[in-house]
Amino acid sequence: MPVAKELYRIGDKRQEKLRKKNDLTLFIRLLLIIIFCLCLNIGLIPQASAESLSERLKTYPNWQNFPTLNHHQGEINYPNGFEGTWQVISILVEQIAPFAPTLVTPSFEGNRRYLEKPLNFKVKFQLQSVIPSYSWAIPSLFKVSAAIIADRRYNAEQITRAYLGESGILAVKLTQKPSPRLVTIFPQQRRLISTVISYDQRLTETDHFLTSELTHQQFEDKNNRYFNQVETTTDYRLISPTKIEAQQITAIYLSPQDPNYFSVQNRPVALYRYQLSLIKKDQS
């Protein structure tokens, strides 16, 4: 009897192991089916949901959401022809407040004075080494490359002085990690903090270079803080080695902290369209 009982125990153990093995096999099969179905569903999502930059520009000003942007770290990489210093003529040709008169951003009416008035400033695009930020890699394995990127600090200074004059800005500070963060300091203890959330870029077959960048902005003074998000989408066209023309659209979105956010959600509350002309400066 003890032997028989032991044999039964051995048999029970084998059956238990077989049952667990079958259960595991069934679980793996179910998991594979679920993964397959998820992949199938992803493949069946309409491509219209991933809006391209070309499509976005065509649908302006009927924008109903944020742009679809694929990059969340680093900088826009411009074509080689952008390298250098450029004299810019910027003209605000259109401004739209989609929810007026119910909802208008604080600076919208004041910006009307810039309509159809050329604004002149300089911008720089510079060659910079790029090192991937792999936390697990050792320095000897870093693959260093070079890219043309905008000189954010210089460009912010130039544009702000064009709008506010030499005394309208005290300093501009830039940090690049983990994402570009620009702090512009104004008189009377005011400052603007702009942090890049995401960006995208595309060079078309017709030599148009399209870019879009979404930034989180925080404006502070002694008593208040104002938050929003800003999209800058630009269509550059290379006319010659020394001339670039562009159409640029700036869209203002409310931050979730704003009490009006839920009435508009992710739709822009202000749109500005600019015509840009860039003339390359003599580098000699």
Label this structure with key terms.
ten-stranded antiparallel beta sheet; single chain; 4 helices; 24% helix; 10 strands; 284 residues; alpha+beta
How much helical structure, as a percent, in the residues?
10-25%
Order of helices and strands: HHEEEHEEEEEEHE
Strand order, main sheet: write it out. 3-2-1-10-9-8-7-6-5-4
What is the CA–CA distance across the termini? Answer: 104 Å
Average the pLDDT over all residues and give the rounded result: 83
pLDDT < 50 stretches: 1-12, 26-48, 133-138
Assign an overall shape.
globular
Radius of gyration: 27 Å
Task: Tell me what the structure shows.
By secondary structure, the protein is an alpha+beta fold. A ten-stranded antiparallel sheet has the order 3-2-1-10-9-8-7-6-5-4, with helices on both faces. Strand 5 and strand 6 form a beta hairpin. The longest helix is centred in the N-terminal third of the chain and has 43 residues. The N terminus is likely disordered.
Secondary structure elements and pairings:
Elements: H1 2-44, H2 53-59, E1 84-96, E2 119-130, E3 145-150, H3 152-164, E4 171-175, E5 181-186, E6 190-203, E7 208-220, E8 225-240, E9 243-254, H4 261-264, E10 270-280
Antiparallel strand pairs: 1-2, 1-10, 2-3, 4-5, 5-6, 6-7, 7-8, 8-9, 9-10
